[in-house]
Amino acid sequence: MPKEKVAIIGSGNWGSAIARIAGQNVRNHSDVFEEKVPLWVFEETVDGKKLTEIINSTHYNVKYLPDVPLGDNVVAIPDVVEAVKDATALVFVLPHQFLAKTLDAIEGKIAPNAKAISLIKGVDVHGADIHIFADVIEKRLGISCSALSGANIASEVALGRFSETTVGYRPGQEAQGLLWQKLFQTPQFKVQLIEDVAGVSLCGALKNVVAVAAGLNDGLGYGNNTKSAIMRIGLLETMNFCLEFFPSVKSETFLQESAGVADLITSCLGGRNRKVAEAFVLTGKPFDVLEAEMLAGQKLQGIHTAKDCHIFLKARNRLGAYPLFDKVYHICWEGQDPATLTVDL
Ligand code: NAD
Ligand code: 13P
User: Fold this and answer.
1) What would the pLDDT profile of 165-192 be if each residue is shown by its tens digit?
2) Which numbered atom of ligand 2 lies nearest the CA of 152?
3) Helix 302-315 / helix 272-283 crossing angle, nearest 10 deg
4) Where are the beta strands (DSSP E) in 154-213?
5) Strand ranges (E), the chain
6) pLDDT (tens digit, 9 = 90+) per residue, 302-312?
7) How remote is the CA of residue 210 from the centroid of ligand 2, in Å?
8) Where does the pLDDT of residue 1 fall: very low under 50, low under 70, confident under 90, or very high at 90 and above?
9) What ipTM did this prediction achieve?
10) pLDDT band at 313; cut points 50, 70, 90
């Protein structure tokens, strides 16, 4: 049987961490995968040198994952079309705002037998329409797309701290789930499978809004009881949102999978959304300024997902059913006083 050729599309903090794991596992499963792992890198200059050249000579992504080597079989490529050429296993792991342009570039240029997996946390909203990114990828490229999400702070996964994640696969396509499990599972990174692409994707997207609320709480100094209440209400709104708008979602995903409550917890304790939202309250600076100052090129997702949810829920006349999501939107985008965080919850 021909071997699977992997390509990683995105090389930020999580993209680099997952490229490292994939680079190790293609060697561990050399009967299944080709050894070289192309990594699409959005080219930029770091200390006067091209990032792709630094990665290919040092095997470190010095900008986005400086402390852990990627492996010498992970090859940085600045041209996304070249990176995906002949690849049969496409891993999409980039901030959601850059997906559309990337799909424009590769549409019609991928292998006909390719399959994909989305590690992107966010939702695609156009007024009253909402889509998960696995569906966006599937529709644009005409290939099957799974989803991976979980309690996966990238730096901790990269350091080999024990973590779990969830792969959601399409109905009747467990074989694809098993292939992705083979690509990503290590003794320190447990991959569970569930037939629920939408649930895995939506939990990953919506927990970022809850993590922003947790960060606002921390900036306000409201303490752990309030933070726990935010996490509980956030999980409830996440579950209600999934069940209301994506009725195929499986209820097990919320509490039994890493993609559900576990990701919400880790993000509310240790994620970038939490950290920057805390600073938003403490400094009064806008989010875009804090993102640039605090994240060294990494991108915040939660504030954008809060806005997307607001647009969608307003168009559906359902804002009143999701008070926490909407409160995050108003504080982040409409200048509402953060001290109103818990009012009306
Ligand atoms: P990141 O936040 O580190 O983002 C930076 C990336 O964006 C870099 O690769 C940069 O080159 C790229 N970029 C910047 N401008 C660009 C442009 N104009 N066009 C294309 N690319 C551009 O990225 P990440 O942490 O790898 O996140 C990717 C996805 O994975 C997100 O949806 C995120 O929510 C999710 N995720 C992240 C983590 C984490 O801990 N970092 C964990 C799980 C999931
Ligand atoms: P942040 O983007 O808030 O760091 O969350 C990372 C994540 O998705 C952990 O699973």
Assistant:
1) 999 999 999 999 999 999 999 999 999 9
2) 10
3) 90
4) 163-168, 189-194
5) 6-9, 37-40, 45-46, 49-50, 74-77, 89-92, 115-118, 123-126, 129-132, 145-149, 163-168, 189-194
6) 999 999 999 99
7) 11
8) confident
9) 0.99
10) very high
Does residue 149 line the site of ligand 2, with CB under 6 A? no
Sequence-distant contacts of 327-331: CB under 8 A, at least 24 apart: 327/213, 328/209, 328/212, 328/213, 328/216, 328/302, 328/303, 331/216
Q: What is the pTM of this model?
A: 0.98
Q: What are the residues whose beta carbons fall under 8 Å from the beta carbon of 1, sequence distance 6 or more?
A: none
The answer to whether 66 touches 74, Cβ cutoff 8 Å, is no
- 56 C-alpha to ligand 1 centroid (Å): 19
Structure tokens that stand for 252 in this block: 């097990």
At residue 22, the 3 state secondary structure works out as: helix
For residue 58, give the amino acid letter. Answer: T
Rounded CA separation 336/330 (Å): 6
pLDDT in tens, 227-239: 999 999 999 999 9
Amino acid letter at 57? S
Contacts of 123 (CB under 8 A, 6+ apart): 130, 131, 132, 133, 202, 205, 305, 308, 309, 312
Q: Is 190 left (phi over 0), alpha (psi -120 to 50) or beta?
A: beta
Tokens of 295: 């994240």
Tokens of 143: 């290939």
Taking the CA of 292 as reference, the closest ligand is: 1
- Show which residues are catalytic: 207
